Amino acid sequence: MPAADALARVTIPADLLPRDGRFGSGPSLVRPEQVEALAAVGRTVLGTSHRQAAVRDVVARVRSGLATLFDLPDGYEVVLGNGGSTAFWDVATLCLVERRAAHAQFGEFGAKFAAATTRAPFLEPSHVVSAPAGEVAVPAFVDGADTYAWPHNETSTGVIAPVRRVPGSRESGALVVVDGTSSAGGTTLDVAQTDVYYFAPQKSFASDGGLWLALASPAAVERAARVEASGRWVPEFLSFTTAVTNSRAEQTLNTPAVATLVLLAEQVEWMLAHGGLAWAAARTAESSGHLYAWAESRDWATPFVADPALRSPVVGTVDLAPEIDAPTVTAVLRRHGVVDIEPYRKLGRNQLRVGMYPAVDPQDVRALTACVDHVVAQLV
């Protein structure tokens, strides 16, 4: 790594910089228009009761908007609750898995859900299939499994997996539960291939954390009601059935972060106004297509995910050659206001990780790669 004084002399011309330098994989870029909308409605909803019409109307905007955005099948509903996806892993463990879960893990977040069901003393040992970081695994049929679970997109590594029912799962009455936290809103899918597609709002939906949302089938709602009535101890805060009841009343069990709801509602409506999920997916595909093509055209950069079909359109990971120190590159960029492209901390690679959610302008991704080129040229 260059000496500190030499590093300080590495500069990026202003005309190369992106208009917005936020490329975080979550929390992600929040559009200025969302913040302006929050300020505009602040006097009527911030600091007011979440049981009253003003806040419940915001929840209704979120639920209606998401139902339209994802073209929900008949009978599916939008359920939301306090806490993020981490809380939902406990909700699902307690309320959706009846006896045994089958998981696929190929990164940090799929592994965490698998660990939750594996540790649960009231469940049979989970069946877990794994793939190395940068590759993908999907569960196959497992006799006795009543719930199949995997991430749609692995935020830690930048791979995307298929969303489809496990062959034989419908006939056996099993649920398919897919973590869409970093993919929801930035990729297309057929929600009917799942029973629960769940996510948090701090990625494609450009909001803050502290909330989980789930697109739930009638079978999932019925499963939770049956499991929770079976005598299994379920804390009210982690009850899926309680969340369903409150969601139908356009509220959450406990006081939600109202600012999060407003930012989320604004982002969903922005997506719908521009053409919905197909438009958002095309936008992320444009950004990611440029990033991967750029990496492949440099002799010192390589897409971390080898198979192009598995490369995420919303979170791109690019390995740098050993002689190009990624922490130095990201430090120079951060000094110029281009932030949060460091790799996932536990992956431990000499790597850049770029969030390319719908709020990120594809032209800014092009500017980012031009900045990286400029910095590398000064460092080598």
UniProtKB/TrEMBL annotation:
Its EC number is 2.6.1.52. GO terms for molecular function: O-phospho-L-serine:2-oxoglutarate aminotransferase activity. The keyword Cytoplasm applies. It catalyses: 4-(phosphooxy)-L-threonine + 2-oxoglutarate = (R)-3-hydroxy-2-oxo-4-phosphooxybutanoate + L-glutamate; O-phospho-L-serine + 2-oxoglutarate = 3-phosphooxypyruvate + L-glutamate. Its cofactor is pyridoxal 5'-phosphate. InterPro entries: Aminotrans_V_dom (IPR000192), Pser_aminoTfrase (IPR022278), Pser_aminoTfrase_mycobac (IPR006272), PyrdxlP-dep_Trfase (IPR015424), PyrdxlP-dep_Trfase_major (IPR015421), PyrdxlP-dep_Trfase_small (IPR015422). Pathway: Amino-acid biosynthesis; L-serine biosynthesis; L-serine from 3-phospho-D-glycerate: step 2/3. It is an enzyme of class 2 (transferase). Keywords: Amino-acid biosynthesis, Aminotransferase, Cytoplasm, Pyridoxal phosphate, Pyridoxine biosynthesis, Serine biosynthesis, Transferase. Residues 150-338 form the Aminotransferase class V domain. Belongs to the class-V pyridoxal-phosphate-dependent aminotransferase family. SerC subfamily. Catalyzes the reversible conversion of 3-phosphohydroxypyruvate to phosphoserine and of 3-hydroxy-2-oxo-4-phosphonooxybutanoate to phosphohydroxythreonine. This is phosphoserine transaminase. It comes from Cellulomonas iranensis. The lineage of its organism: Bacteria, Bacillati, Actinomycetota, Actinomycetes, Micrococcales.
